[in-house]
Write a structure and sequence with these properties.
The chain has a single domain, classed as Rossmann fold (3-Layer(aba) Sandwich). It is built from 5 helices and 4 strands. It is globular and about 30 Å long.
Length: 111
């Protein structure tokens, strides 16, 4: 089992899939044991309920959903805390910069 789980969300889970691959490569290169996956926003609830998610990142195109996601992640993290939630940096997203997005997730998880 991975040390941490990072979930990316977008409208259909398609555009974030390439970014997941880049983030997985960056994690491997940095020696970080992480499960990183993408799913459509419509499937987020089931993943949050069934898995221990350490960080949720939204694609910039669904940043308008942040308010909804704040409710979804409330109290669902470790020790009943909120799961850290953020919007992927638009430039990093556009450039598919897996290293930068992984760093963003790591900072959210580790504080």
């Amino acid at each position: 089992m991975a040390e941490q789980t990072i979930m990316l969300n977008c409208s259909a889970g398609m555009s974030t899939s390439l970014l997941v691959t880049k983030m997985q490569e960056a994690a491997k290169n940095d020696g970080i044991d992480a499960k990183i996956f993408a799913c459509p926003a419509s499937e987020a609830d089931q993943h949050i309920e069934q898995e221990e998610i350490d960080c949720v990142l939204l694609g910039p195109q669904v940043s308008y959903m942040k308010g909804d996601f704040e409710h979804k992640v409330a109290g669902k993290g470790k020790d009943g805390k909120d799961i850290p939630l953020g919007v992927i940096d638009m430039q990093a997203y556009g450039m598919m910069n897996g290293e930068k997005v992984l760093k963003q997730a790591e900072e959210m998880i580790n504080g």
